[in-house]
Structure formats: structure tokens, C-alpha cells
Specification:
alpha/beta, eight-stranded parallel beta barrel, three-stranded antiparallel β-sheet, 16 strands, binds zinc ion
């Protein structure tokens, strides 16, 4: 009896009839990327995120290759998923052996997942040189392993390794490998461009030929990015009739990476009208991509298509005025369609239109400004940028700059001075920082000290907030969430200018501020001041009378 007939082929439905079936390999192929690491709880969290996203298949790891991957399968078995099917990855049985004595095939069963994926050879060169066996034995290894796993109730996916090279070498043999997997009951056969060297037109031609031979079966594509084509190739494969698309979130993977699902899914959905995930989930790629980057301990790529910070950023003045009139002038899809947002970058290229747009976005009545006022803001901005300031992720400092340029800035307090001491009492001791801050609010002066083992900036922050919270209790809610230091002219080493970017939150809003100085502490201090001022601007009210007055 055909093993496939037992459970039928419709176990997993794409989001739309004849739409793509997404197969995520982030935890297996993606986790092999340089610098990518997932903790065990992180992997479980990832599986839930993909489940919510509406991805049907998730490859959890290489069964039997290491204890960590097996642990994932044990942990995942205790979780409840609404639709995702976990897949354990492995290989065809060994040359000359039997499936029931093969430790890796048995590990696939031990993983306890509803589905198993095995890779096998479709290229005669690999059969002869890597397996060192006969072409017939290789085909038997495929049939027997698929049938064995099917016999144990697993849905089986067969990955035909180096398929495109194999097809170029001997199309009949490569097709025979595919046919043997289907005959033995494989749910899908995925054509792998294992070394990432195939071009899109070749992908289209070969997938079309395979589709011609197996018109009713589920054909998949597994692409690598060695030629920068790991998005283009799956799209061509899909157009040629492949319906399973394998890939990794954020394009994680060995060498130049895997097919990037964060790009492919929106492209399938928005460009080819093929629902890869339920349509209501499409607005999640950006937050999802960032969550995955966090889980993998990677910085999000700002230039990532669709989901990156820069994907809908406009910098050149003419682009900005175009987007203001009609976003379609410089945007291929609306940023909201993938959960991203339009961002207007301030830079030396930006002119008045850029500033106006940013003001409007920040809700600061740009319409009320005269031409002269706008010119003043632009001039101020350019001067600051020439000194090394960067306002691209420092919206709060930008708002304060505008206030100052318009001479509408009323300081909430005056600084009389600060002092920072850094002390280390012996090799094994922590480095202690102590800061003293002297401020004046109206008639009241305040001197406070702050201490920290986390460095002088933290000590300064503590001292400043202690001083100010007497007058402005809401200051206590501010938490610094990020602190980034850039040396602007590295050639001059310690003589160089330092730019400090700080991110703060009060639990509801987030804002960024910037400071620049040859002195790191002073640069940080400026960014701290802007952060506090911005918070006070938001609440915009008179200071409270301090309970403990220390008028001088
Ligand atoms: Zn791969």
C-alpha cells in the first residue's frame, strides 16, 4: 500500500489554495550562522512566535547530532502549538546498512516530532565521491529511509541535496531520486541549491521540468545566498510551480546565509498575490524580525528589505518632498503593510522639506512656522551636524534643538556644575564611580551625589535625577535603556570627538538623545540632560516646591 495514502497529502494546508507552504529552518540551518545562538528557552519562544505568525512547518534541529537539539524536541513536546508542525532533521540511512540499525534514523524517530526531514543525494558526483557507493544503492537509501519513517507514522520531507548541480550533470538520475522519494511516501521533495550557486533563470527552468514530471506532488525549494540570490531563487521556483518554500528568519544561515523568509513572505504576498501566511498576519514581519534578532543575539540589520530601520527612510530632500505629496513616489509598498513605518532621515542632504516633515510627524505645528523660522532650524541643524551630532535616532534632541532655534526653549533648571571621580582600590576591587551634581531650580539650589559600579555616566545619571526629582517627581520614572558611544575621528584616537547616543523610556514612551564632545563624560552628560528635558517638555508644568528646601 502506498504509505502516503494512509494519512493523505492534505495534512498541512497553505494559507490559500495553491499558495506557498512555508517551511522554517531557522533553528537548524539558520542556527549554523556565524554568531547566531539561541538559548533553549529562546528556541521555544521562537517556535511560538512562528506558530502565531502562521508558519506550518518548523525544523527544530538535527536529530541525533547533538544533545541540545534533542533537548529542544523534548521541551517542545510539552508545549501547545495551535498549528505549527515540528520537523526533526536527519539523513538517509548509511551505505550498506539498514534503517532499524541506523543511529541517526532512529534518532529521527526518538525526536517524537510529527514530521521528519531527511536529506539525500541527487548528484552522481556526490554518490561516487562522497558516499562512495553505487547509483542504485543511493536510490535504495532514499526509498528505504522514507518508507521506514512513513511506516512509523511520520510525515516525511525529502531534501534533494545539490539538486541543481545534479540535474545539470544528469537530469534523469536527479529526477529518479525525486521519484523514489515520492513513491516511498514523501509528502514533499525539496530541491536544494546547497552551495547557492544557481541563477534564477536556471532555477525556473529546472523547477519547471521537475514540476512537469511530478505535476501532482509538492515540490519545495531550499536556497542559499552565496550569489545574493536566495530571495530571487525561491520566487522563481514558486513561479515555476514549487509550492514549499524553505528559509530562515532574517536570512540567518551558514556562509552568506539562507533564503530570507522576512523578505520572501512579503514578496510572495504583496508582489505575487500568494498568501504565505494568513493575510492578517502580514503586518508582523518587522516586529517578528526584531524579536528573532533579539533571541539570536544579533543586531537587527538596518538595511533589511521591508523590515529594516532604513527600509522606508528618506534622506534626500527631493525624495522627502515627493513622499510628503504622495508616498507612492518613492515607496514600493506602504510601510504599514509589513509592520514598518516611514522615517525621514535628517542629514546634510536635508533641507527645509525634511525638517517640515519631521516636525509634522512629531506633532509640532509645522504649519505655524514662518519661512524664516524654518530656515533658522535648518541652519542650526546643519551646524550641529557639522560638529558631529546625529539626530537620526535622537528625536528628543531634535525637538529640543527646534525649541532652541525658535528661542522658545525655557530651561527647567540651571546647571552650576558637576564632578566625577573614578576610583579603583586594588586589582581585585570593582571600579567605583562617584558623581556630584549642583543644579538650581528658581531660587533653590541642590547638590546631590550618586554612586555606581556601572561607570561614571550611571553615577552622573543617578545624581542628576536625585537632584531633580525633588522638583519634578516624574523624573524618577526614566530608565536608560541603551547607551552607544561612537568615536567620530578614530585617526586622532583619544583626541577625537565622541558622540554618545542614549535611549530612555518612562515605561510608556521611548526617546533618543545625543551629545557630542571631545570628552566622553561631557557628551554623555549632554545626552542625559536632553533626555530629562524632553521628559519635562512632555509634562510641561511648573516645578513642585521641594519638600526639603536648601535655598542658598
Ligand atoms: Zn541549507
Amino acid at each position: 500500500m502506498n504509505a502516503r495514502a494512509k494519512t493523505g497529502k492534505a495534512a498541512v494546508r497553505p494559507a490559500q489554495a495553491d499558495g506557498p507552504v512555508i517551511y522554517d529552518s531557522t533553528l537548524r540551518d539558520g542556527a549554523q550562522a556565524l554568531g547566531v545562538t539561541f538559548s533553549q528557552p529562546g528556541k521555544i519562544r521562537f517556535a511560538h512566535l512562528m506558530d502565531e505568525f502562521g508558519v506550518p512547518y518548523l525544523e527544530g534541529g538535527f536529530a541525533g547530532s547533538n544533545e541540545r537539539d534533542m533537548q529542544f524536541f523534548r521541551d517542545a513536546a510539552k508545549e501547545r502549538f495551535s498549528q505549527i508542525r515540528l520537523v526533526a532533521f536527519g539523513a538517509t540511512r548509511r551505505v550498506g546498512g539498514s534503517c532499524k540499525d541506523d543511529p541517526l534514523v532512529q534518532a529521527l524517530l526518538k525526536a517524537g516530532t510529527p514530521a521528519a526531514a531527511i536529506y539525500g543525494k541527487a548528484w552522481k558526483l556526490h554518490v561516487a565521491e562522497v558516499l562512495r557507493t553505487s547509483e542504485a544503492e543511493n536510490l535504495d537509501m532514499i526509498s528505504e529511509t522514507v518508507a521506514h519513517l512513513r511506516g512509523h507514522g511520520r510525515t516525511v520531507h525529502f531534501d534533494a541535496e545539490h539538486f541543481f548541480d545534479g540535474y545539470k550533470d544528469d537530469p534523469e538520475y536527479a529526477l529518479e531520486a525525486v521519484g523514489r522519494a515520492f513513491e516511498a511516501g514523501a509528502e514533499s521533495v525539496t530541491l536544494c541549491d546547497t552551495n547557492g550557486g544557481t541563477l534564477p533563470h536556471e532555477i525556473f527552468a529546472v523547477v519547471s521540468a521537475v514540476r512537469g514530471r511530478f505535476p501532482d506532488d509538492l515540490i519545495g525549494i531550499h536556497a542559499h545566498n552565496d550569489c545574493g540570490l536566495a530571495v530571487a531563487n525561491p520566487l522563481e521556483a514558486f513561479r515555476a510551480g514549487a509550492r514549499m518554500v524553505q528559509g530562515c528568519m532574517n536570512g540567518f544561515g551558514e556562509r552568506a546565509g539562507n533564503a530570507n523568509l522576512t523578505t520572501i513572505i512579503p514578496a510572495l504576498q504583496l508582489k505575487l498575490g500568494a498568501a504565505a501566511v494568513p493575510p492578517e498576519k502580514l503586518a508582523t514581519p518587522r516586529p517578528l524580525s526584531r524579536a528573532v534578532a533579539d533571541l539570536a543575539n544579533q543586531r537587527p540589520d538596518p538595511r533589511a528589505p521591508y523590515v529594516g530601520d532604513a527600509a522606508f527612510s528618506h534622506k534626500a530632500g527631493t525624495h522627502v518632498s515627493g513622499v510628503r505629496r504622495n508616498p507612492a513616489t518613492f515607496e514600493h509598498v506602504p510601510p504599514e503593510s509589513v509592520g514598518n513605518e516611514r522615517h525621514v532621515v535628517l542629514s546634510e542632504l536635508s533641507g527645509a522639506s525634511n525638517v517640515l516633515y519631521r516636525l509634522k510627524q512629531a506633532g509640532a505645528g509645522a504649519a505655524d512656522l514662518s519661512r524664516d523660522e524654518v530656515k533658522r532650524i535648518v541652519r542650526e541643524l546643519k551646524e550641529r551636524e557639522a560638529e558631529g551630532y546625529s539626530f537620526e535616532s535622537a528625536d528628543a534632541s531634535f525637538r529640543i534643538l527646534v525649541q532652541k532655534a525658535l528661542r522658545a526653549h525655557k530651561p527647567f533648571f540651571e546647571l552650576e556644575g558637576f564632578r566625577v571621580i573614578v576610583e579603583k582600590r586594588g586589582g581585585g576591587q570593582p571600579c567605583l564611580s562617584e558623581a556630584t551634581v549642583k543644579i538650581r531650580v528658581g531660587d533653590h539650589a541642590e547638590i546631590t551625589a550618586g554612586e555606581s559600579v556601572n561607570g561614571p555616566v550611571d553615577a552622573l545619571d543617578k545624581a542628576l535625577r536625585k537632584a531633580l526629582s525633588q522638583f519634578y517627581p516624574e523624573i524618577a520614572k526614566i530608565v536608560l535603556t541603551d547607551f552607544r558611544v561612537r568615536i567620530l575621528d578614530p585617526k586622532e584616537a583619544t583626541g577625537a570627538t565622541t558622540r554618545v547616543l542614549i535611549e530612555s523610556t518612562d515605561g510608556e514612551k521611548r526617546w533618543g538623545t545625543v551629545g557630542v564632545s571631545p570628552n566622553l563624560i561631557e557628551a554623555a552628560w549632554q545626552a542625559l540632560l536632553d533626555s530629562v528635558e524632553y521628559k519635562l517638555l512632555g509634562s510641561a508644568r511648573a516645578p513642585e516646591r521641594p519638600s526639603r528646601r536648601r535655598a542658598r
